[in-house]
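[step 3/7] fold_predict: job queued, chain A
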Amino acid sequence: RRKIPFSIGEYYHVYNRGTDKRVVFIEDRDYRRFIFLLYICNSVIPVRTDNLFQQGQPLLELFGVNRGDTLVDIGAFCLMPNHFHLLLYEKTEGGISIFMKKLLTAYVMYFNTKNERRGSLFEGPFKAKYVNSNSYLNWIFSYIHLNPVKLIQSDWKESGILDPVSTKNFVDNYKYSSYYDYFLGDRSEGVILNKKEFSDNFSQLNDFEDLVQEFREVGQ
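[step 4/7] structure written:
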């Protein structure tokens, strides 16, 4: 069971990985479905996602669907082949727990149906860490957005980034995180985030190099 309580007005690093470290995002449409679910499941009202997809609208257009009031504020996200990371702010009582239940239930149903499988997809209940300081908040923000680096250099945390130019280019072009929304421009997926809740904290993190420096200096 999860040992930490969630409190309104506090920040949390939420994450989970596939059971037995299995891949949970096999192809592009898996990533895109999860990212859309980050948007549509963050709502105090029930949402029937199957109805939305049956209408045949392009996924990007669905980011304009009215979802009502949100359960949490999302500050950052990153999806990796066998796990994900989220930075969340608890804005309503039980908001994180309700949001994560809706999100993971919807994705597992989609994934199992598509792949004709049954049973658990993720490794037990989602994991969460309380972000107890501004320095830790900045470090988590940097850590989440630098996660894709290990796809091209697995030992970068220990050895440092060997090719900063190509690594930055890889992260710039990684579509499955909120890095693009903070550092490169506007896109439909940007509505997932509530930057106003987080902007003051991350004001000094302006580019890839700042993220790397923050990760190295704090070094949790």
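[step 5/7] annotate
The first strand starts at residue 11 and ends at 17.
The two ends are 24 Å apart (CA to CA).
exit 0
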